[in-house]
Automatic annotation (TrEMBL):
Keyword Nucleotidyltransferase: no
Annotated protein name in UniProt: Cobalamin-binding protein
Protein origin, superkingdom: Bacteria
Keywords: Signal
Organism: Billgrantia tianxiuensis
Lineage start: Bacteria, Pseudomonadati, Pseudomonadota, Gammaproteobacteria, Oceanospirillales
Entry-linked NCBIfam families: TroA_like
PANTHER family, per the entry: MOLYBDATE-BINDING PROTEIN MOLA (PTHR30535:SF34), VITAMIN B12-BINDING PROTEIN (PTHR30535)
Length: 321
């Protein structure tokens, strides 16, 4: 077997995104060292412009033909590939790739932080979608050394989400479907921002995790959602994207509303922790709001649904004044 070699080269164009079942059989087991030999390049490939895209590490990735076998190495990457209309081409995911539901039937390669490399190579992907800060760099670099095309993603803005869908559509040969979904997401976010523009500000604390207690700053994508809804992030000025704080910091900031996800899609225990602080404005006003984490903590089109929910919660806080 030989596989077509992708072209991967640095790009001078900065990407906008930068600013946790097995299916069919994959053939007999093959030793990892043998798989290295099976992945040799084929020279003289031609690349159409439509099959080139710049990833979120500012590298241009080009394919000789549309990617027909895609491995998505994070739950967010899985969602983005399906959003781009290429779900039928996904041959591997990682744990917690639970959306859309059909993704749960795709073979899982283990954790996004510990990928089963032998099984991955045996699946013969023609495109691997890596997460910039989510996957072990040494494993992705090894895949590239084998001649497998690795396309890095990690959207950090609304436009970055839409752009990621479009870029995946180009590489997968599903550009029409991808462009429609990107346009739906863009239009939805524009409408949301316009609807809540000029609303009275609400001072908000968003809780990412409980131990250690973590939040986001204004540069984080979730911080952008808060701003779009007319919220003022009480920790927006902190330097780190995901700062660690303590209860005392929240008490000092005295937010009018607290929004939190949890360890599951229906787990509200993080909010009950704050009920002990009866003098906290968010508690006194009854503004402790739960948001399913997958709707807001994955940079995918479902962020639009999560943003609408965020805005509704802040509107409820305004109504209680």
């Amino acid at each position: 077997m030989t596989t077509s070699t992708p072209v991967v080269r640095p790009s001078s164009v900065s990407t906008l995104a930068s600013s946790g079942r097995f299916g069919g059989a994959v053939g007999p087991a093959v030793g990892f060292s043998a798989l290295l030999a099976l992945s040799g390049p084929a020279a003289g490939e031609a690349y159409a412009d439509s099959l080139c895209a710049t990833d979120d590490r500012d590298r241009e990735v080009c394919l000789p033909v549309p990617a027909g076998r895609i491995a998505a190495l994070s739950p967010g990457a899985t969602e983005l590939v399906y959003a781009a209309g290429a779900g039928d081409q996904v041959v591997a995911v990682v744990d917690f790739s639970d959306y859309p539901p059909q993704a749960q039937a795709v073979p899982s390669l283990g954790s996004h932080t510990r990928i089963d490399m032998e099984r991955l190579v045996a699946l013969r992907p023609t495109l691997v979608i890596g997460w910039v800060t989510g996957n072990p760099s040494e494993q992705l670099e090894m895949l590239e050394a084998l001649g497998l095309p690795v396309f890095y993603l990690e959207p950090r803005s609304f436009e970055g989400v839409a752009s990621a869908i479009e870029r995946l559509g180009r590489l997968a040969g599903t550009a029409d479907a991808a462009d429609r979904e990107a346009r739906r997401f863009r239009d939805g976010m524009i409408e949301l921002r316009e609807r809540y523009a000029g609303r009275a500000p609400v001072r908000v604390f968003y809780q990412v995790w409980d131990e250690p207690l973590m939040t986001v700053n204004d540069a984080h994508l979730i911080g952008s959602v808060l701003t779009a809804c007319g919220g003022v992030n009480v920790f927006g000025d902190l330097e780190r994207l995901v700062p660690r704080i303590g209860d005392e910091s929240v008490l000092d900031a005295d937010p009018e509303a607290i929004l939190a996800g949890g360890m599951g899609e229906e787990s509200r225990e993080w909010l009950t922790h704050w009920e002990q602080y009866t003098n906290l404005t968010a508690v006194a006003e009854g503004n402790l709001f739960f948001v399913p984490p997958s709707l807001i903590q994955r940079p995918t089109p479902r962020l639009l649904e999560g943003s609408r929910l965020f805005c509704e919660k802040l509107e409820a806080a305004r109504a209680r004044r």
